[in-house]
Design goal:
The complex is a heterodimer.
Chain A: H1 2-27, H2 41-68, H3 71-103, H4 111-132, H5 137-163, H6 183-226
Chain B: H1 7-23, H2 27-47, H3 52-75, H4 80-84, H5 87-93, H6 98-128, H7 138-163, H8 169-196, H9 207-231
Classes of the chains: A mainly alpha, B mainly alpha.
């Protein structure tokens, strides 16, 4: 019963995201300065928000793992890191697609781009560490510490555009004196952020569940072989 | 070690023990120095003579990038001796305070890092043909280098402990160390740039604060979380 409720929630989220993308591409007006290309922000900004939020999620699961030493926490942490990595890549790719017509290049060593790339490397490093350690308490603790260190990196990424002279525009949503965006763009962007963040949480939940099932099958098979 | 010894006496004993074992393996200290010398020669030879303003920027970048590469060589092997001789397991059986263990390891690595840092600094200055006394702005440079080394050492020791039991630790260490060292490295680069330009007072613009914030963060995280790696 629970299974079908969660499946239904997944389908609902999918429909909501498709509806939002339809609105983003076909219904909302083009930007005065950037024209049609700006529409990618409805995917780029929510993906970036989700990737940062997941870094804090990793901090949460890491702290929980270190405090409780629960085996479930390492599956949750790995799921968060995998989906976080995926969303960071999505952020980089969509940013690159937007950068080509706007800045004239696919990639530049801009502060925000570089620090986001670093976040992707850290997620990848976390997954590599997870895979190269034997299961158990040692892995929960080692990956837990790394999860905390990764979360420390996120404020730097967020503040990078204000600390360094950079090509990337400064924050336009959360800034002193209010947002610089048109109200209809801002409201649609906020809804897109909420929707994609919910999608990322849903994916994390499903992936953690898969990892747990995989582990249970492995244990059961080993027990049968032992018996 | 005496049961119930104070944290400080535990620190002193472990530190003395670590120093002796480090001195018995001098190649561990020499390898990063040789690495930094070769890297600086290759970089300087490859780039050749540069205009004065670019040369100063290049010198600064070259100094810190070489330093971080050379230090990563040393940091990645911080626990090698402990593993090889089974000291790590032996120390775990004593009722040691993990903080004194971290503090001793941190102090040792911080001191040994200077044996890489000083030659790198001298080589970089010599090979770049930067005019001026090598000891000009001595105290300012010493402050920045000390702050840089403190942050990198705390993080290096903690990361080295994390990857100690990983199958591919030689590969994993740089993958994790370089991205995490970026804030410290960038702040150090900017601070040293201010010093080279003779604008020490301009450091109030935030870079020194960023450097110190990350130092404090990494040292505190190291001191708190090291116990978890020891018990793992």
């Amino acid at each position: 019963m629970n299974f079908s409720i969660w499946n239904g929630l997944g389908r609902l989220l999918l429909v909501a995201v498709l509806y939002l993308w339809y609105q983003s591409i076909f219904v909302l007006p083009p930007d005065i300065h950037q024209g049609e290309v700006y529409r990618i922000i409805y995917l780029h900004v929510p993906a970036a928000f989700a990737s940062f939020a997941l870094a804090f999620g990793l901090l949460g699961t890491s702290l929980y793992g270190l405090a409780t030493k629960s085996p479930g926490s390492e599956f949750a942490s790995k799921a968060v890191a995998e989906i976080g990595f995926l969303f960071t890549l999505l952020t980089l790719v969509t940013g690159s697609i937007w950068g080509k017509p706007t800045w004239g290049v696919w990639w530049t060593w801009d502060a925000r781009l570089t620090t986001t790339f670093i976040l992707a490397v850290l997620y990848a490093g976390y997954l590599l560490l997870w895979s190269s350690l034997p299961p158990g308490l040692g892995r929960i603790k080692s990956t837990g510490i790394l999860g905390i260190l990764i979360a420390v990196d996120v404020p730097i990424i967020y503040k990078s555009v204000t600390w360094w002279r950079t090509l990337h525009q400064p924050p336009s949503m959360m800034r002193e004196g209010g947002s610089t965006m048109a109200p209809e763009i801002l409201s649609h962007l906020i809804v897109s952020i909420v929707a994609l963040t919910l999608v990322s949480l849903y994916l994390v939940w499903r992936r953690a569940d898969n990892l747990k099932t995989e582990w249970m099958i492995e244990v059961k098979t080993l027990n049968q072989l032992g018996a | 070690m005496r049961e119930g010894a104070s944290t400080f006496s535990q620190f002193k004993t472990i530190f003395r023990f670590l120093i002796l074992s480090e001195l018995a393996n001098k190649e561990r200290m020499l390898a990063p120095v040789m690495f930094s010398g070769i890297t600086l020669i290759l970089l300087s030879f490859g780039v050749g003579d540069l205009p004065k303003d670019i040369n100063l920027d290049f010198y600064n970048t070259k100094l810190f990038v070489t330093l971080i590469l050379a230090l990563s060589l040393f940091f990645s092997r911080v626990f090698d001796l402990d593993r090889k001789d089974g000291i790590h397991d032996l120390m775990k059986t004593y009722n040691l305070n993990p903080f004194s263990w971290f503090a001793a390891k941190f102090a040792l690595v911080f001191l040994v890092s200077w044996s890489t840092c000083i030659p790198t600094f001298v080589f970089a200055k010599l090979f770049s043909g930067i005019s001026g006394d090598i000891f000009s702005n001595f105290w300012q440079t010493l402050t920045i280098l000390s702050a840089t080394l403190a942050g990198l050492t705390a993080m290096g020791v903690l990361l080295s402990a994390i990857v100690m039991n990983a199958d591919s630790r030689a590969l994993l260490f740089p993958v994790l160390f370089f991205p995490l060292s970026v804030p410290v490295l960038l702040a150090a680069l900017h601070c040293n740039d201010h010093i080279l330009q003779g604008r020490w007072k301009g450091l109030s613009d935030g870079w020194l604060q960023i450097l110190l914030i990350f130092d404090v963060t990494y040292v505190i995280l190291g001191a708190i979380l090291f116990s978890e790696t020891v018990e793992a």
